[in-house]
Amino acid sequence: xxxxxxxxxxxxxxxxxxxxxxxxxxxxxxxxxxxxxxxxxxxxxxxxxxxxxxxxxxxxxxxxxxxxxxxxxxxxxxxxxxxxxxxxxxxxxxxxxxxxxxxxxxxxxxxxxxxxxxxxxxxxxxxxxxxxxxxxxxxxxxxxxxxxxxxxxxxxxxxxxxxxxxxxxxxxxxxxxxxxxxxxxxxxxxxxxxxxx
Length: 197
Prior knowledge:
The chain is an alpha+beta fold. The chain has 2 domains: 5-21 and 58-193, no CATH class; 23-56, no CATH class. The chain has helices at 59-90, 120-152, 155-174; strands spanning 5-9, 22-25, 28-31, 37-40, 53-56, 100-104, 115-118, 181-185. The strands form 4 sheets. Strands 1-8 form a two-stranded parallel sheet. A hairpin with a 5-residue loop joins strand 3 (28-31) and strand 4 (37-40). Helix 1 (59-90) packs antiparallel against helix 2 (120-152). The two termini are 36 Å apart. The mean pLDDT is 90.
């Protein structure tokens, strides 16, 4: 059995956000005991639950997020380009007809309606192709959510959003690598296990 070659990547850290998003009072739509929908400035119409607040961006908060987004996208795009290169090398020359291993008949009363059974390589190809189509967009949205939550002061939810960033980025860095390579985050504490209780 060959040895596993471990590749270490740096985890992401939440940037320090100096700007804070503003808040304004809004309304909550809730259903009362009679089954009718009403609007209330309090959560679920209960004063004890507090007012319903909406966070609003300012020019300063938007500019701060854009400043931190540049370094993040530079790292993500670098990992994406490498993943696309590995994807191209692995599935070079793949053909749909060549990957059909058999046919199945899903309807016994219609034997001429045959459904092709594809090989595992073709299924992996389709899954990896779909993953690459929107992974950069998903990472961008999640990282913007991390910074927005930090500007709102919701630090518990920041950790949840940062966990999703680490999951997506690890999947991107591990895409189409041989079985002899393993990608892990550098450091004593694994960011994928940080939220365990």
